[in-house]
Amino acid sequence: MKFATSPSEIERRSMEIIAPYLADYSLTAEELKVYSRIIHASGDVYYAPLIKISAGALEATKAALLDGRDIFVDVEMVRTGINKRALSKLGGAVHCRVADDEIKKIAVEEKITRSMAAMRSFGRALDGAIIAIGNAPTALFEVLRMIDEDGVRPAAVIGVPVGFVGAADSKKELASQSTVPFITVEGTKGGSPIAVAALNAILYIVNSARN
Amino acid sequence: MKFATSPSEIERRSMEIIAPYLADYSLTAEELKVYSRIIHASGDVYYAPLIKISAGALEATKAALLDGRDIFVDVEMVRTGINKRALSKLGGAVHCRVADDEIKKIAVEEKITRSMAAMRSFGRALDGAIIAIGNAPTALFEVLRMIDEDGVRPAAVIGVPVGFVGAADSKKELASQSTVPFITVEGTKGGSPIAVAALNAILYIVNSARN
What we know:
Radius of gyration of chain A: 17 Å
Number of strands of chain A: 6
Helix content of chain A: 40-55%
Strand order of the largest sheet of chain A: 1-6-5-4-2-3
Number of helices of chain A: 10
Largest interface: A-B, 49 and 48 residues
Largest sheet of chain A: 6 strands, mixed
Oligomer: homodimer
Structural class of chain A: alpha/beta
């Protein structure tokens, strides 16, 4: 068998293959990087028409990263996928509480999901921070409630929960509010690699501008 | 807002929504669980026609799990997603070496991907074990080479690498060999959550049969 084995070569060829699928979209160079990386991570060019980046969302996320702000995530797979070395260069860290014993206890007592209990527990620590939700619609609904009712003000929300119960609705609600900048995808698709792809794309943009 | 917050209720409703999309496939009850969980994890019903489970693959994976065999994976996101509590009840553990310093060194020296170097380093430890590849086509190509040239005999390969460079080819090659039982999906789509979904579905089947 003959196949590409150099990581940089694989990435370059992948981006070349994806480019024509994005030719009809009017995207900035940075938006193009986010779109390309989402399609690269999913192997699914049909993500292109589903992606929504609110005006100023990339600027707000970049500014927060440059400011050393932390990232709060719903599930461990998102934490795992985020490039922590790139993030730590900027002074930021990733927080995930979904597996904490205290959170499990609260979730059982209140009959809510663990990721929802985890998001609620972060409280005002979310102010100025980046939120990345790759799995749980309930976590995104809770963040939207905290923005609306508690006045919490994250720098940006990358909200791409996945599935058939609540995911599409939670993302529609994220896209219909104008208080907090956001990145999302329409419909049932999404997931940890999509959240990770969007965030890492922005991390690379920020770090390569600094080098 | 009103939305489902009970994890068991969300899961039940999700599976109800997915069921009609699988009605036209002739699947065993266990295959149905694997298909449903992949669609649940991706939010993408168009996975259904892409999934391929070789004859005996579920039996082989179940037997290996029951025998306490380990799981070898290509990337940390797959390790993170596998239900380690369910696995450890059976005596198994997950191995991933993609982030090891030694592997990085070998990858740079040999100009190959780290996940390919990591798979190669496992050698005969793969005999009788389960392999789950969720990201890197090069890792799957290497496993196929080890099966073909080195006579390595894993119990089963769950091979669902993602992307536009090599992923479809590597999975086609997996599906065209008949030495090792496999689970895969056709084409460019795939990813860590797909590998995790297939494996956790089988873990739940095995553990619920034991309870």
